[in-house]
From TrEMBL:
Gene3D superfamilies given in the database record: 2.60.34.20, Aar2, C-terminal domain-like
Protein name as it appears in the record: Uncharacterized protein
Keywords: Signal
AAR2 C-terminal domain segment(s): 181-346
Pfam families according to UniProt: AAR2, AAR2_1st
Keyword Signal: yes
Similarity field: Belongs to the AAR2 family.
Keyword check for Signal: yes
Signal sequence bounds: 1-22
Amino acid sequence: MSHFSTIPAILLLSLPPSILVGIDLLTFTTSPNFLGIKNLPPGWHFLYTSETTSFSIRDGFWFHIPAPSPSPNSPTLIVRKWDSATSNLIPCSKDEEDKAAEGLEGIWRERLTPYRQSAGGEEKGDWAVLTRHITPALLSRLTGSETDWRITTASCGAQDADHIPGLSAAETGLEERELRFLGIDLKRTWRAGAVGRERTEAVLDRSWALGEVEKRFSSEGDGGGDVVMGEMEVCFLMVLTVANYSCLEEWKRVLGLVLTCRRALRARERWFAGILELLRRQLERGDDVEGGLFDMGDDGGAYLKGLLKGFKMILGQVFGQGEGDDVKEELEELEVFLKAEYGWELSDAFVRKGMLELEDGEQIEMELEDMEGEDERGEYAPVVVEL
Ligand SMILES: *[C@@H]1O[C@H](CO)[C@@H](O)[C@H](O)[C@H]1NC(C)=O
């Protein structure tokens, strides 16, 4: 058996010339000779294409390279082919895969480009850090497919197409596959049937809602995954690579859930420290997002800043001196980064009292951080009535 069959590679057949290809954190325009990427490291990868380099529809898919095994029979060759009707890379039949594998030796040297994580050759290991908690079950749930984990940028064109007679989504070849997110509802974070004090507490402390999500999707965490962190990872990277803004909304919902927990924070200090570390690692790559992850003056930035200020306040209330050091240290590192990068201050909050009004009119008194004249919690905020 030739060694070609044991070094992981991905073949991309029938690509149009000079198309934009991205793998993980690196994008490049293909040369006419290009047929794929070799020397893929083990772990998760996301490969995407776009027919133009300008900001347009991008279509990509996740795949996994298993850790090297002593028996070299593990499938290390992934084969996809360009489908010109839909302008994206689709899986191949077994026959096509076998045929491609046979011709591998002839193209290996000249036509496959070695994997690099980012331009400049500096391998920082970021990609691995940003994909640590993803599992096959999570991607299957998100994409609604067991085998083809595709995520795209919704084209305005595809949505508009419904309204143009004779141009349905089917005719443009773009099928809409909605992503199946965790179903976090920040407007309803209490147990069905909860009343009075229990409900009040669940509004002020979303630990119950966090636990529910984890319970509902617990099977996705099997084998070292973590459903909440995994969701945060995939969603962030889908903003970074294919600019899928449904994923940005989900990422914001996950943070809105996690950063408003008190009871869980006390009980699971290390987990929260991990969340803060992941958030910092993600924000460190925020500049790679076309146009910035969010313009720090806009809603997205204000939303996150408000959440972090609130979290800092909770942290101070939940832990006394000498407690919660893991989380405190991670928050400090995040603060240093946010201050240097965006000039954010998380400490300038002064506490005032206010009333939260729930949808059905019940009012709850709570302490609020300075909202800087506007409601920084965005659309999920209950109405605040000043005392
Ligand atoms: C995000 O990706 C999904 C799955 O490909 C797609 O259905 C959805 O329209 C995309 N949303 C945006 C805003 O790009």
